[in-house]
Amino acid sequence: MSGPNSEYDPVQVTPLEAVEVDRMRDDALAAIDAAADLAALKQVRQAHAGDRSPLALANREIGALPPAARKEAGLRVGQARGAVGQALAARQEVLEAAAEEQMLVEETVDVTLPWDRQARGARHPITTFSERIADVFVAMGWEVAEGPLIEAEWLNFDALNLGPDHPARTMQDTFWTEPAEDHVVLRTHTSPVQARTMLTRTPPIYVVCPGRVFRTDEYDATHSPVFHQVEGLVIDEGITMAHLRGSLDHMLQALFGPGITTRFRPSYFPFTEPSAEMDMVCFVCRGAAPAVDSCRTCRGEGWIELGGCGVVNPRVLTACGVDAERYTGFAFGFGIDRMLMFRHGIEDLRDLFEGDVRFTTAFGQEI
Ligand code: FA5
Questions:
Q1: pTM of the predicted model as reported, rounded to 2 decimal places
Q2: Substitution candidate for ligand 1 out of 133, 313, 338, 343 with most atoms within 8 A of CB
Q3: Residue 332: CB within 6 Å of ligand 1?
């Protein structure tokens, strides 16, 4: 017969013996110490502090002890688990700091290394400004029209009331292609797009056409043999010079800011009658320059010349198949490069074409 039950039976609760609990704690502390990185520490945490770790299992045994033995065993296991928890937290901190330091070393960028990045291009200011102009009209419901750069002589001149012997043909010095019998030119203005549009569409017509044009002009600070114009054409019933003025005032205010006023000066173009040169008040001195004689933008004029415009000549309407009894229209053709020069205070037109990065960086070109 066995003897009476003692209050504490070490055979049944081996995991709770002091030596055993100390061993579990020391095993855990050694494993924590040995964990070389955060991933290893995660595994150690699982093995020595997780739900199925020896200390957790020992903790569960406490409930099975006689009440008098629970306190001492609970204290022992609790202290051991506390020591493991603290060691884990301390090791976690050390390993996190080490990982961060290593990341900083690995990801260091040596800013003194030679630079080998390919420069990214940017769109040319003439392109972006042309699109901006077109956008102003598109927002009013106009369409963008296009035509070829190499154009039939008839569309560049004859259809626009510039017959072969018309003296105004010499106003635009022309590049002719060979053989001459083909009667093909590099378009001298964007106005042939007017003719093409009228020949292919029926009114009402509201189109804007930015594009490249060519003339045998000298290359200097205000002229280039290759430059850009924007053409506008409206054909509808009851169109007058007032509509022309309103449309252009709107365009200029959208591009140069509110309060920009305009003026017409009498002029002559065979394809418009009456014709005018349009000026806008200098957007820098607002017309004060003649009095103060100091504005670099308008060179003391107070006004900036933009280009030609007028009411479409009925002869042009007829040549292009539009009923001149029923419809009237207006047209304009402005130099985009010159407008851009004024807008940005560019003193020499050649800066726009020569690709000097000191110039183009100001317009977003990256180097
Ligand atoms: C014309 O070309 C007419 N087709 C404009 C027009 C259209 C009038 C519709 C009426 C109705 P002009 O030759 O003046 O007009 O040229 C217009 C603008 O182009 C000029 O005001 C100027 O800003 C610009 N321009 C002319 N030649 C050059 C050049 N070589 N380099 C840079 N810009 C130029």
A1: 0.69
A2: 338
A3: yes
Q: Give the separation between CA 46 and CA 64, rounded to whole angstroms.
A: 25
**Residue 329 has which token pair?**
């229209």
Residue 193 · residue 211 · CB < 8 Å = yes
Smallest Cα–Cα separation from 260: which of 125, 136, 130? 136
pLDDT digits (tens, 9 = 90+) for 263-311: 999 999 999 999 999 998 888 888 887 776 678 778 788 888 899 999 9
Structure token digits, residue 296: 């670099």
For residue 205 and ligand 1, the question of a CB distance below 6 A is answered with: no
For ligand 1, whether the C-beta of 247 sits within 6 Å is no
Testing ligand 1's pocket by substitution, the residue of 269, 271, 349 carrying the most ligand atoms inside 8 A of its CB is 269
Residue with tokens 């100091």: 294
8 Å CB contact between 84 and 28: yes
Closest of 132, 127, 145, 135 to residue 331, by C-alpha: 145
Contact 208, 232 (CB under 8 A): yes
